[in-house]
Amino acid sequence: MRILSGIRPTGRVHIGHFVGVFENWLKLQEDNDTFFFVADWHALTTNFEDTSTLREYTKELMKTFMAVGLNKSTLFVQSAIKEHAELMVLLSMVTPVSWLERVPTYKEMRQQITDRDLSNSGFLMYPVLQAADILMYKADGVPVGEDQVYHVELTREIARRFNYTFKKEVFPEPKELLSKVPKMLGTDGRKMSKSYGNTIPLITTENDMSKMILPMITDPARKRRTDPGNPEICPVWDYHKAFGTTDNPEETQWVMEGCTQAKIGCIDCKKLLLKHMVERLSPIWERYDKITEDDVNETLENGNAKASSIAKQTMEEVRNAIGLMY
Question: Residues 117-171: pLDDT tens digits?
Fold first, then answer.
């Protein structure tokens, strides 16, 4: 299968990306033709007023791709492939505005993000750009979290409409590929998002991670240590599932009984979680520290060149289907 997905460089990559995105990408790259990119144009949809860190975050994200082990995939930066913008313009001609206005994440972000201006047309149009990203490489599958499933559905609709309008089967209809743990809550109990400021960075230190994990919101019923709780409604329990505690029957029983019978405090539970997280993430931290700027630039040059070659071929087909001279 041809697989494609990307991440916006709007801040530091968080552990939600690792659990919900990178672990899935690492599995997919073993048996598929995988393309993963830094979505820097997408970053402008909500962060156009301050681009002072855009280049820094773009390179940092690419370095993180390398550190987590995506060495069998084509890694590139969206803005290096100008054909993405051209395809977005052409797809917008067959995409009704009503399709964009009904996108769930569009409505959610307009409600949740109040400290930035989201009235720009680019924010409304970002699902069309996302469709262009996917269709450019004729991706068969798109690994996403639950909150992005609708975007893949919309991409299928756009591909179907384009093919029908211009009487050419240019684009396949991609399918969403959900990860094992598609949603991780942030430190405040809401969806983990860089936009909400409730994330835990993937690239950090054990000391800094403990400062973020230990104060995390837990089951609201456990106001005191002697109050019994319910792990199934506690955000920390989802972290335990993601980082391996539930693979150990003894540790699972310790957490479940300790919480439901008030035998342990929330800090005790979080310390066990922290141990598992450090074991899993410290090899990534070590690799990240060893990657040089030259390593990043070489990866970018190679990935951009391969992506560009495919994009040029796709756009030739698109222009021919539409009937454009150039």
Answer: 666 777 788 999 999 999 999 999 999 877 788 999 999 999 999 999 999 999 9
Report phi then psi at 33, rounded to 5.
-90, 100
Tell me: the pLDDT tens digits for 209-257? Answer: 999 999 988 888 888 888 998 998 898 998 999 898 888 999 999 999 9
CA distance linking residue 196 with residue 186, whole number of Å: 9
Q: What is the rounded CA–CA span in Å between residue 141 and residue 173?
A: 9
What is the strand order of the sheet 175-178 is part of? 74-77, 33-38, 2-7, 141-144, 175-178
Tokens found for residue 79: 């803005």
- Structure token pair of residue 242: 């993601």
Residue whose C-alpha is closest to residue 13's, from 160, 179, 204, 183: 204
pTM over 0.90: no
Tokens 């019994």 correspond to 228
The structure tokens 């035998």 sit at 263
